Amino acid sequence: MATDTQRSHPLGQIYRGMKKRCENVNANGFGNYGGRGISICSQWQNFSVFVADIIGSIGPRPTMQHTLDRRDNNGNYEPGNVCWATKSEQASNKRNNHKLTAMGRTQTLEAWSYETGIPKSTLFNRVKRGWSDEAVITEDVHSKSDDYSVFPPGGYALCQKLGLNPETIKSRLRRGWSFESALKLPVDVARGRSMDKYTQRRQG
C-alpha cells in the first residue's frame, strides 16, 4: 500500500508502477515483467533508498513524458541498469536489445546489423513478420535501395524462378496481400503489370 510520502513525492507514481509491474500478478503488463522474472533489487524495496539512488545516479525525472526504463531489457530494476526515457526512446531500446540466435551465437539486432551489413529496420521488420532467427540473419538483401523484407524467406528467389517480376509481387505484399495470393494473379513479366480478367480476354 502506498504511503503518504509516496503519494506526494514526484517519484511516487514511478515507484508504484514499477512495483505493480513486477510484483502484482493481477496488474496489466505483469507478464512482461514479473511474469518473466524481472524483479526489483532488495535495497529498492525501501522507497527512500530508491529515491536517493535514482536522484544520485540519473537525476530527477526530466519531464512527465519520461518513465523509468531498463538499459538491459532482460535485466532487473537495480542501480546501474535504469535510465529516464520517453516511450519512443523505449521502443527504440527494445528494438536494439532484441536478441536473435543464429549460427550458434546470440546477439542483439544492433550487433547482427553491424556484422551482416543489413539495416536494423530490415532485421526488425523480418522479426515482426515471423521469420525464423536464422532466416532473419542469413537472407540476403538484394538491393541497398530496396527493402525486400516483405518477402518470406526464399520468396524473392521463388519469384525469379517462376519468371515473376519481384517488384510487382513486393508491391502487392506491401498492400496487404498474402504471398500465395500475390503469386496467383498473372503478371506481365516484361512490364511488371498485373493482368486482370478483362485484360486477359482482350489479349485472347
Can you walk me through this structure?
The longest helix has 12 residues, at 12-23. The chain is mostly helical and 204 residues long. The strands form 3 sheets. It has a two-stranded antiparallel ribbon. A two-stranded antiparallel ribbon has the order 3-4. It contains 11 helices and 6 strands. It has helices at 4-8, 12-23, 47-57, 87-97, 109-116, 120-128, 133-138, 155-162, 166-174, 179-184, 197-203; strands at 67-70, 82-85, 99-102, 105-108, 187-188, 193-194. The N and C termini lie far apart (78 Å). It folds into 3 domains: 4-94, no CATH class; 98-144, no CATH class; 150-204, no CATH class.
Radius of gyration: 24 Å
Q: Could you report the average pLDDT, rounded to the nearest whole number?
A: 80
Poorly predicted runs are: 188-204
Q: What's the helical proportion of residues?
A: 40-55%
The SSE order reads HHHEEHEEHHHHHHEEH
N- to C-terminal separation?
78 Å
Q: Say how many strands there are.
A: 6
Relative strand content: 5-15%
* Count of separate structural domains: 3
What gross morphology would you assign?
elongated
Q: Largest beta sheet: what is the strand line-up?
A: 1-2
Note the total helix count: 11
Main sheet record = 2 strands, antiparallel
Secondary-structure-based class equals mainly alpha
Name a few traits of the molecule.
two-stranded antiparallel ribbon, 3 domains, 204 residues, mainly alpha
